């Protein structure tokens, strides 16, 4: 998981810091994606869709959550949706 917004400190250009705003923006995106996934899963798959949320929300990778959010809108089965976050999770650990 990487945060793009960093800056070099003037006193030591090789030392980088993450701004609070960047960290909050990252957390905000994750929260927004999680809420969208919850809503889309509920609408598309009902109570069964909500049961997979804990597994999905364990992942804090914005790219994975974005893919799952898109998938929750278009996938026909929960198994199709699981394949997205399981595949992405597998790639992140290898």
Share in β-strands: 5-15%
Mean pLDDT across all residues, rounded? Answer: 78
Low-confidence stretches: 1-9
How would you describe the shape?
elongated
In DSSP terms (H or I, runs of 4 or more residues), the helix count works out at 5
Give the spatial strand order of the biggest sheet: 1-2
Q: Span between N and C termini?
A: 14 Å
State Rg. 16 Å
Structural class: mainly alpha
Total tally of structural domains? 1
SSE string: EEHHHHH
Seen as an oligomer or otherwise, the chain set is single chain
- Biggest sheet details: 2 strands, antiparallel
Helix % is: 55-70%
* Number of E strands: 2
Textual characterization of the structure:
With 94 residues, the chain is mostly helical. It is 69% helix and 12% strand. The chain has one domain (22-93). It is built from five helices and two strands, in the order ββααααα. It has a two-stranded antiparallel ribbon. The longest helix is centred in the middle third of the chain and has 26 residues, at 20-45. The two termini are 14 Å apart.
What topology emerges from the helices and strands here?
Elements (H helix, E strand, L loop, with lengths): L5 E4 L2 E7 L1 H26 L1 H5 L1 H5 L4 H13 L3 H16 L1
Antiparallel strand pairs: 1-2
How do you describe this structure in short?
The protein is mainly α. The protein has helices spanning 20-45, 47-51, 53-57, 62-74, 78-93; strands at residues 6-9, 12-18. It has one domain.
């Amino acid at each position: 998981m990487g945060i793009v917004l960093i800056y070099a400190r003037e006193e030591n250009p090789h030392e980088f810091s993450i701004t609070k705003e960047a960290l909050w923006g990252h957390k905000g995106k994750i929260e927004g994606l999680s809420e969208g996934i919850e809503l889309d899963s509920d609408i598309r798959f009902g109570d069964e869709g909500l049961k997979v949320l804990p597994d999905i929300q364990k992942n804090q990778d914005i790219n994975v959550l974005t893919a799952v959010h898109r998938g929750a809108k278009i996938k026909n089965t929960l198994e199709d949706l699981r394949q997205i976050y399981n595949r992405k999770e597998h790639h992140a650990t290898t």
